[in-house]
């Protein structure tokens, strides 16, 4: 095992009387591709929302690169190196594909605001670098030919890809993907999974992936965490998860674990 990147200890959140997530422990090591699965309403997205600062946990702690990040605002969490995508695609629909990626890159640009207002040389350097980087990203995602298209006009599968490209443009160490293949056909899903495996290697990323399609998760992830009713009921390799009686029971009536 390599370095511990994310350490989640006894994480929990309560909405009124509902304990949406409780006592969750999770460790992600650098370079891993990990699945987070569970039936509807299990608490997967809520966990993502806590990891990214959207919700402040009621209990427990989140440590990222040896620094406590629980309770930080979302933009701070992004600056620390965690990016995400959303279950329902969130793009700037009225901006072009290139602009969508540039906006993400811009939020972390190192040149000062005054330099950019005055259009000082450092700014130009920064801008050119940014456009080059953004185009390079788009190419990896097969989106370069769409660069001047409005995001809203992209085919659905391409919008999903753009969302991942945008998350990656913020230069994260940890990428959280919330059902990246939702709504995709089998061919698009297959290509997306290949792409995810590729970017993990290419950018030396750690990836945590929520996915409903069991076969897909089993095919790509090295380890899997399983949530049910807000609690972790299992973690292990795909083989271990596949044959875990608690997991099978949790999924009964939901999906078939093949
Ligand atoms: N802001 C909120 N206020 C109240 N309850 C919430 C809130 N956010 C989530 N919940 C509840 O927390 C529970 C877990 O929801 P969550 O969306 O995390 O599940 P999930 O595992 O992502 O489900 P799905 O697979 O259907 O997306 C649900 O009962 C949900 O209704």
TrEMBL record:
Name assigned to this protein: High-affinity branched-chain amino acid ABC transporter ATP-binding protein LivG
CDD domains assigned: ABC_Mj1267_LivG_branched
Gene Ontology molecular function, alphabetical: ATP binding; ATP hydrolysis activity; L-isoleucine transmembrane transporter activity; L-phenylalanine transmembrane transporter activity; L-valine transmembrane transporter activity
Q: Which UniProt keywords apply?
A: ATP-binding, Nucleotide-binding, Transport
Record's GO cellular component terms: plasma membrane
Q: Which InterPro entries match?
A: AAA+_ATPase, ABC_AA/LPS_Transport, ABC_transporter-like_ATP-bd, BCA_ABC_TP_C, P-loop_NTPase
- The coiled-coil segments of this chain are none
Identify the Pfam families for this entry: ABC_tran, BCA_ABC_TP_C
Matches recorded under SUPFAM superfamilies: P-loop containing nucleoside triphosphate hydrolases
Name the GO terms of the biological process aspect: D-alanine transmembrane transport; L-alanine transport; L-isoleucine import across plasma membrane; L-valine import across plasma membrane
Gene name in the database record: livG
Q: Which residues form the ABC transporter domain?
A: 6-254
